[in-house]
Design goal:
By secondary structure, this protein is an alpha/beta fold. Helix content is 36%, strand content 22%.
């Protein structure tokens, strides 16, 4: 299964690609049927079977609900939904290592995935990944079998927060459809750090700077192209399914910044030349600033409330939450359309601040999404209206127990 290809050799601005909304259930099923944890966060040992499209985890604050979502989020490239260090995920009273395993029901049949940490000879930690018992090169290999998207309370301030938060959110959107994006972003950030260090310590070494800036320009174009492709496709899918009466309003998306203005309408090779020249011209300015000021590391994702045609940052808190939910649901559909797999959808404390109308609409939408959805909440009554076939679990520290519906 080939991930979405970045636009390395095409113009940085092009026509919106046709993206149609896939019918419910059109993407192949991918469902967690068994979850096992050992020495992960608050769970010393857990092994539980699941057989439901919608899974509600109910428990008091601090019971370990989000820990379960975090464990599931490790089966995608990156550091999981908390972006935590490996050492922080191990149980406090355990050996300092952890393991997480899944059994998946996929179009290839049952697949077993595993990840966790092991001690290195020098006492450090290294992460291991396995697919059906065989070692995998990295978490990106899991993308052949599962894709994961999520929404957590940490994103509630996305539209009013710093541009860096929106860039990280955007990169997560890209990563779900293009697993190689994380490698490009990491390489780009390493090149930025190298340039900043050389500017500080060896500012007259022009040959060294020329070499770094050549690499930086290639990576910048690749990162920006992948981001733009995802935003363009997502915006097209949203517009194709727009409904001004929906309780989860559609968003008008764009990505902009000095780099995007410079790149608009130009072929990638020309953008590389222009950016390389701009980097060379700005060396003294960047040295004084202590960082590289121009590039996709300064871009921003802009979201507008479509039906009201106003910036998301100016909407009410409730409208922003509804807009964010609509955006994540649309992203799940995009992942299904581009990968052919219905992604796992993780929604932490999703229903707590929704009125009854929006809550009912959310559950109906999730039931039609074709994905397995994992939700958390402290109040069991929030999940009373889940459709038939949903599973509810009571979460207490270290334990997960099935609940009866009703």
């Amino acid at each position: 299964m080939a991930p979405a290809a970045p636009l390395h050799d095409e113009a940085m601005t092009e026509q919106t690609p046709p993206v149609s909304l896939p019918p419910a259930g059109a993407a192949s099923r991918c469902r967690v049927t068994r979850l096992g944890l050992r020495d992960f966060r608050s769970y010393r040992s857990l092994d539980i079977d699941i057989d439901a499209p919608l899974v509600a985890l109910v428990g008091e604050n601090g019971a370990g609900k989000t820990n379960l979502l975090e464990a599931l989020s490790l089966f995608t490239a990156g550091r999981g939904l908390r972006r935590a260090d490996l050492a922080a995920m191990a149980a406090h009273d355990g050996p300092g290592t952890f393991s997480v395993s899944l059994s998946l029901d996929t179009r290839w049949g049952d697949v077993r995935l595993g990840t966790g940490t092991e001690r290195t000879p020098d006492g450090g930690l290294t992460r291991r990944c396995r697919i059906d018992g065989e070692t995998a090169s990295s978490p990106a290999a899991f993308a052949e079998y599962v894709r994961v998207v999520w929404l957590t309370p940490a994103l509630d301030g996305l539209f009013t927060g710093a541009p860096g938060d929106r860039r990280r959110f955007l990169d997560r959107l890209v990563l779900a459809v293009d697993p190689a994006h994380g490698t490009r972003v990491n390489a780009f950030e390493r090149a930025l750090r190298s340039r900043n260090r050389v500017l500080e310590e060896h500012p007259r070494n022009t040959a060294w700077l020329d070499a770094i800036e050549t690499e930086l320009a290639e990576l910048a174009v690749a990162v920006a192209a992948a981001r733009r492709e995802t935003v363009t496709r997502l915006a097209a899918l949203i517009l194709a399914a727009r409904d001004d009466a929906s309780p989860f309003p559609w968003g008008d998306l764009s990505i902009g910044g000095e780099f995007e203005d410079m790149a608009a309408g130009r072929p990638a090779v020309e953008v590389e030349d222009l950016y390389r020249a701009r980097l060379a011209e700005g060396r003294m300015r960047d040295r004084a600033a202590g960082r590289t000021l121009t590039g996709p590391q300064a871009s921003d994702l802009t979201v507008r409330h479509g039906p009201k045609d106003m910036p998301a940052a100016e909407c009410s808190t409730g409208e922003q939450k509804a807009l964010l939910i609509g955006l994540v649901l649309a992203h799940a559909r995009l992942v299904a359309a581009m990968s052919g797999m219905a992604p796992l959808v993780l929604m932490d404390e999703i229903a707590a601040h929704l009125d009854p109308r929006r809550r009912a609409a959310l559950y109906a939408t999730l039931a039609d999404l074709g994905s397995q959805v994992w939700m958390t909440g402290a109040d069991p009554t929030l999940f009373a209206d889940l459709p038939a076939g949903a599973a509810r679990f009571s979460v207490t520290p270290g334990r997960l127990v099935p609940m009866r519906a009703g």
